[in-house]
Amino acid sequence: MKLTVNGNAHDLDVEPDMPLLWALRDELGITGPKYGCGIAMCGACTVHIDGVAVRSCSVQVGDVDGDVTTIEGLGTPDAMHAVQAAWFEHQVAQCGYCQSGQIMQAASLLEENPAPTDEDIDDAMSGNLCRCGTYPRIRAAVKTAAAKLSEG
Amino acid sequence: MSRIGSIARRTFLIGSAAIAGGVAFGVYAYKQPVRNPLTDDLAEGEAALTPYVHIDQTGVTLITPRTDFGQGAYSVQAALLAEELDLAWEDIRVDPGPPSPAYYNGKVAAEGFPFPATDTGFVAKNARAFGDVVSKFMGLQITGGSSTVPDAFEKLRVAGATARQVLLEAAAQVTGIAKETLSTKDGSVVLPDGTMLSYSELAPVAAGIQPPREVALKPESEWRYLGKPMTRLDTLGKVTGTAQYGIDMTMPGMVYATVRTNPRLGGDVNGFDATAAETANGVLKVVPVTGGVGVIANNTWRAFQAAEAIEFDWGPAPYPADMEAMWEKVGTSFSKDRKDSRFKNDGDVEAAFESADTVLEAEYRIPYLAHAPLEPMNAVVQLKDGRLDIWTSTQIPIFAMAAAAEVSGLDAENIHLHVQISGGSFGRRLEDDFIRQAVELAQAVEGVPIKMTWSREEDMTHDFPRPMQMARARGVVKDGHVEAYDLGIAAPSVASSQMGRLNQSLPGPDIAIIAGAWDQPFAIPNYRVTGYRVPPLVPVSSWRSVGASGNGFLHDCFLDELIHAAGADPMEERIRLCWHAPSRRVLEAVAEMSNWGNDLGPDRGRGVAFTLSFGVPTAEVVEVTNTPDGIRINKVYVAAEVGKVLDPVNFENQVQGGVVWGLGHAMNCELTYDDGMPEQTNFHDFEGMRLYQCPEIEVRGLETTDDIRGIGEPSVPPAAPALANAIFAATGQRIRELPLNKHIDFV
Ligand code: FES
Ligand code: FES
Question: Domain check: are A81 and A59 in the same one?
Fold first, then answer.
């Protein structure tokens, strides 16, 4: 089975119904996407398939029909994506366990809708749970990232 | 404990000596608030055993023994050390260090005595100092109770300053230049001509220098890091996916595992059929473990799938099987023989009730709650050639070592615990159950490292929750004021449940049953708080803000009822009743911030609540709108007095997080039991707050006392009562049971 993750092609020998999350984490050693619930209720496992946010715990690896991007492929410590830079600036993270999923969700939102309203942000981000309660900072960081991206 | 303790000491010495050219500095002068001869005797031995600053040829490593599970403990510990040691922020490296009694937490036991935080008298102070000595003797290396900052505030600055003095002395010896003419800058000693000698260069000489016993600390006016916004050390890793949590730890040749144990906590396994699991794809081994079965496979998901396929015959729960039976136990505990404490008994409530025309009465209930940190319990363990290595996050490293020693039969010197950061804890990692299981699994595949991960369902159904509680309250109002308040609280004891699992016992009453209620600074003329200890039900544990988490709701909501009955203003009457100046100031602060008293408009309401917990007076105002579809939380104002805000950014984040935690669980969370098993299994039925529901939360930290306190927990207790009080103000509906969504919808 072929899978492209963060620009790298992989050949995987796994059952097609394995969730993408566990193929990434345990087969490919890509641990940025996190396991939180396994049933699409928390968003910790969020990655992009062709730029669109999906819950990797609930997508079977055999059904993946595009390029996968994880938090590691969005940006790096030396070259952060605008959303990561905004998260850094606002110091959003507490435990941080939800944040790679939050960031991937926000990046996908801004890709699709570069100038989201408060309601758009609420709609897009409410599937991502944060047990530490960083929501006020998530909102602020999404707005900062949107402003940054619209500057070009 | 003491065997583990002495072995942990030796292990550390070996560890530090192994680093070439390494030198470790400890706390050499530690002034007790009340001096105790015991500490004098211990000081000598401790000198070499409380290392916080480690320097080798590659740089300086700060040892930060309080675990970071998201509250920013590593960064604040590093800032306290670096402030005095003089390091550049970007050069700071931290390491949690090995488990060691040297890293005892002097403040975690200090508040375990029946003196409210507002009591600064001789006896109370001595009791707290005694708590410090107890911690020291027992080697209580614990992270919890919002105690990291109070414990570390002086200790770590002294450790940093001591190390700096030794490095200055080393530079003086190396160069022959008088120490007084030397200074330091960003990890180097600076000579009068501007030459820089790095701490690493000086380490070999510094290692032979006797550290000073007394050091002076910088005045606050010269602080470079403390009190200013910091960039937490873990931020970059957490926004780029490069931070490694316990669940991300990987070893060559590692295999993956999970467990299923009896969801009737503590019940037996009568039998199981694992035929399907044994032949499932990728399964390497099915292993019986204490209370259940583990599956070892070549992928976590395959282990989950196989474990799901095991059929179990679980034994019954060692507690009443359903909520009705449990409430019955709680309700019948308001009795003489279950009375646990009555530390508050002002005036004469009985006389006040007798002479009153009307006595208000109410019964309140709060549910069990799961900790459910977003990272489920996990551990990586390797048993190889008689050596056990454990990578996991824990708030109790020394107890975790003892548990691993007990399970493996190994001496502690052959056990190496590598503490990891974790995706939350909220008290869950004060337990060692998952560590014991992972050690059992590693024993089954000796030589091969295993990563054990619980499914969310296993995590949710095998929590040691916050206890269910009931309150029976009575009160009298007179002339527009609260005249009498009698609060009885019945709860199972968290402390005895938890300490029992750690092979410790609890002498005397459990303060947690009444914390956040008996110790509130209100001068009500007739005022009584009684704790009743419910017989053990479901095993319970500390949940963010512990006893105060529920008692804040029970105590403040009925106070609010009385104030409304008196026809008084909820804010003004609380301020009038409050005799403690710092507490009054936080109430006045939220009144001003929220513009209390102005007209909010139709269908709106506001509520105020106050709880003093962990020594931090905290007041919150919640504003809501009663929409046709339910309650919308519009805005929250919080004021808390902590003596000194060490990092304003993290302070605000922690306070906001505590408010979201308190509101979210009050809105829609409970753990209920049927047939002995928790009915909630995942975040679909234990949801908490979601982003769209999150109000704006305005935070103010007050710094008007010299009582330095931590902020991880105190914003939790007033959140639920402030919300319930606001709902009453907006709708006239007084809800006396959590979660609130049993009675009202939220949007
Ligand atoms: S782990 Fe995928 S949504 Fe929770
Ligand atoms: S930062 Fe901890 S769960 Fe979001």
Answer: no
Write out the two tokens for B46. Answer: 């401790």
Q: What is the pLDDT of residue B502?
A: 78
In a domain, B16, yes or no: no
* Domain, as residue range, for B703: 333-369+464-742
Give the Cα separation of B486 and B530 in Å (integer). 8
Cα separation, B139 vs B102, whole angstroms = 7
Going by the DSSP 8-state scheme, the letter that residue A25 receives in this structure is I
pLDDT value, residue B116: 78
Cβ of B250 within 8 Å of Cβ of A31? The answer is yes
Tell me the chain B residues in contact with residue A70 when contact means C-beta distances shorter than 8 Å.
241
Q: Which has the minimum average pLDDT: A127-131, B21-25, B151-155, B238-242? A: B21-25
CA of B517 to the centre of ligand 2 (A): 30
What is the mean pLDDT of the segment spanning B448-471?
98
Phi, psi angle pair for B20, to nearest 5°: -60, 130
Q: Do B660 and A133 touch (CB under 8 A)?
A: yes
Structural domain includes residue B448: yes
Q: Does residue B51 have a pLDDT over 80?
A: no
List pLDDT tens digits, range A120-138. Answer: 999 999 999 999 999 999 9
Asked if A55 and A110 count as a contact pair (C-beta separation under 8 A), the reply is no
**Measured between CB atoms, which of B243, B299, B422 is closest to A22?**
B299
A104 and A115, same domain (yes or no) = yes
Residue at which a domain ends, from A73, A100, A118: A73
Q: Quick check: B391 pLDDT over 90?
A: yes
- CATH code where residue A92 lies: 1.10.150.120
* Residue numbers of the domain that contains A89: 75-151
Whether residue B372 lies within 8 A of chain A, CB to CB, comes out as yes
Q: Is B656 exposed, middle or buried (0-12, 13-18, 19+ CB in 10 A)?
A: buried
**End-of-domain residue from the set B181, B196, B226:** B226
Residues of chain B contacting residue A136, judged by C-beta atoms under 8 Å apart: 656, 694, 696-697
- A59 and A106 in a common domain: no
For residues B131 and B186, the model is more confident at B186
Strand ranges in B229-300 using DSSP code E only, listed in sequence order:
255-261, 269-273, 283-289, 292-297
The CATH number that applies at residue B720 is 3.30.365.10
CA distance B439 to B405: 9
Q: Does B236 sit within 8 Å of A77, measured CB to CB?
A: yes
Atom of ligand 2 nearest to the CA of B374: 3
Residue pairs between chains A and B whose CB atoms are closer than 8 Å? 191
Peptide bond into B739 cis (omega under 30): yes
My answer on whether A46 and A84 are in the same domain is no
- Tens-digit pLDDT profile for residues B132-146: 666 665 667 788 878
Point out the domain boundary residue: A73, A107, A122.
A73
Please give the structure tokens belonging to residue A18.
């394995």
Segments of B324-463 assigned E as strands: 339-346, 360-366, 378-384, 387-392, 415-419, 450-453
Partners of A35 on chain B (C-beta within 8 Å) are: 247, 300, 376, 453, 456
Closest chain A residue by Cα to residue B453: A35
Name residue, tokens 């984040």.
B653
B234 part of a folded domain: no
Judgement on whether residues A62 and A85 belong to the same structural domain of the protein: no
Of all residues in chain A, the one with the smallest CA distance to B661 is A133
Is residue B232 in some structural domain? no
B619 and B733 co-located in one domain: yes
Is residue A37 within 6 Å of ligand 1 at its C-beta? yes
Residues B475, B445: one domain? no
pLDDT digits (tens, 9 = 90+) for B64-100: 888 899 999 999 999 999 999 999 999 999 988 878 7
Chain B: closest CA distance from residue A138 (Å): 9
Residue B238 touches chain A, beta carbons under 8 Å: yes
The lowest-confidence range among A22-36, B153-167, B346-360 is: B153-167
Cβ contact, residue pair A94, B242, below 8 Å: no
Do residue B407 and residue B529 come from a single domain? no
pLDDT digits (tens, 9 = 90+) for B392-442: 999 998 889 999 999 999 998 999 999 999 999 999 999 999 999 999 999
A-chain residues within 8 Å CB-CB of B247?
31, 34-35
Q: Are residues B601 and B534 in the same domain?
A: yes
The arithmetic mean of pLDDT across residues A97-114, rounded, is 98
Considering the domain architecture, whether residues A63 and A79 belong to the same structural domain is answered as no
B444 and B342 belong to one structural domain = no
pLDDT number for residue B213: 82
Sign of the torsion angle spanned by Cα atoms B734, B541, B69, B647:
positive
